[in-house]
Amino acid sequence: MKIVAVCGMGIGTSVLLKMNAEKVLQDLGIEADIEAADIGVARGAAQTADVVLTSEELAPEIGDVPAEVIVIENFFDLDEIHKKLSAAVR
Asked: What is the pTM of this model?
């Protein structure tokens, strides 16, 4: 499974989201390759990804991709990430 964590610059919040998604997937017992990316890189990476995690304001900028785009409201909220990711990967 390939997951892309997206923020505007690909430096700070996407790395935080990536790390929190890794924690959640570990708890779920699911292996995945998770990449942190900025919006420009994410458009291409989402073409081969299964899931894209991003904010509400960036989700429309991902474009038409085969990946499931999941909006995360609070990148610090492990419960929210757990709920939304587990629904997508099961």
From this structure: 0.92
